Amino acid sequence: MRGHFITFEGGEGSGKSTHAATLAQRLKTQGIDVVLTREPGGSTGAEIIRHIILSGIAKPLGAETETILFAAARDDHVRSTIRPALVDGKWVICDRFIDSTRVYQGILGKVDGKLIRGLERVTVGAAMPELTFILDVPAAVGLARAKTRRGAGVADRFESESVEYHEHLRQAFLALGKLEPKRCIVVDGRAPRDVVAERIWTAVSERLLAGQVTRAAEPAAP
Ligand code: T5A
C-alpha cells in the first residue's frame, strides 16, 4: 500500500476529532490527498453499526458481542474506505481504530485478547496504522469537554460509564503506548489546541513527511 495511515486514540473528549481534522487540513495545504475518517463508522455499513452500538442496545448482549459488532464495522470500513485510499496513495487519518477495541473491549471489557487479535487479523490485515497519536487528558477533563460539546444531548453508551471507568481507560491507553513506542506517540491533550497541533505536526513531519516530495513542493508545470 502506497499511502500513509495515521490514527488518533484516547479517552472521551481528549481532542481526537479536533486534531484529526486539524492535521488533515494542514496536510491538504501541502498538496497531499487526505481521507479523514472515523470509527466506529467511516463507511455506509459501518455507520449503521455505529448507530446500533452507541445507542446502547447491544450492551446487554455483552462485551464479546460488542467486540464482534465493532469488528464487523471495521471490516466494512477497511474494505470500503481505508484500503482503497491507501492503495491509491492517499493519506488516511482515522479518529479511533484498533487500539480503541484493545482498550475498551479488551482491557476494560475483559474480552479475550486472542479473539481481539484474531478479529484484527481478519479485518485489518496489512492496513495497519504507521503512526498513532494517543491524546492524554485526565478523565474528568475529557468528560467535562464531551459534556459541554454535547449540550442538551444524551450521553452515549460509553460516555455514560463512571469517571473511574474512564480513568482506567486513560491508564490503559498509556500502557498500550508504552508497549508499542515506535508506532504510538502520547501527547498531553491538556495543552492549548495550537500547542497540541504543533506537537502532532512536528511528529508527522519528522516521521512521514521528511524526504517526501509533495505536490505543493513540486515545480509548477511549464
Ligand atoms: N469505541 C470505539 C469502542 O469501544 N471500541 C472501538 O473499537 C471503537 C472504534 C465512539 C465510542 O465508541 C467506543 C469509544 C467511544 O466511546 P464517539 O462519539 O466517536 O464514540 O466519541 P469519541 O471518539 O470519544 O469522541 P469525542 O468527540 O467524545 O472526543 P474527542 O474526539 O476526543 O474530542 P473532540 O475533539 O470532539 O473535543 C471535545 C471538545 O473539547 C474541545 C473541542 O473543541 C470539543 O469541544 N477541545 C479542547 N478544549 C481545550 N483544549 C484543547 N486542547 C482541546 N481540544 C479539544
* Bound small molecules, deduplicated: P1-(5'-adenosyl)P5-(5'-thymidyl)pentaphosphate
Record field, number of beta strands: 5
* Structural class category: alpha/beta
Instruction: State the share of residues found in helices, binned by percent.
Output: 40-55%
Mean pLDDT: 94
- Low-pLDDT runs: none
Tally of contiguous helical segments = 8
Proportion in β-strands: 5-15%
The CATH superfamily is: P-loop containing nucleotide triphosphate hydrolases
Distance between the termini: 31 Å
Please give the domain count.
1
CATH class: Alpha Beta
- The assigned CATH architecture is 3-Layer(aba) Sandwich
CATH topology: Rossmann fold
Q: Summarize the main sheet.
A: 5 strands, parallel
Strand order of the largest sheet: 2-3-1-4-5
Report on the structure:
The chain has helices spanning 16-29, 44-55, 63-87, 98-108, 113-124, 139-150, 163-179, 193-209; strands at 4-10, 34-38, 91-95, 131-136, 184-188. Helix 1 (16-29) crosses helix 8 (193-209) and helix 3 packs parallel to helix 5. The model has no long low-confidence stretch (mean pLDDT 94). It is α/β, with parallel strands linked by helices and 222 residues long. The chain has eight helices and five strands. It has a five-stranded parallel beta sheet with strand order 2-3-1-4-5, with helices on both faces. It has one domain (4-217): Rossmann fold, CATH 3.40.50.300. The chain starts with a strand and ends in a 13-residue tail after the last helix. The chain is globular, with a radius of gyration of 17 Å.
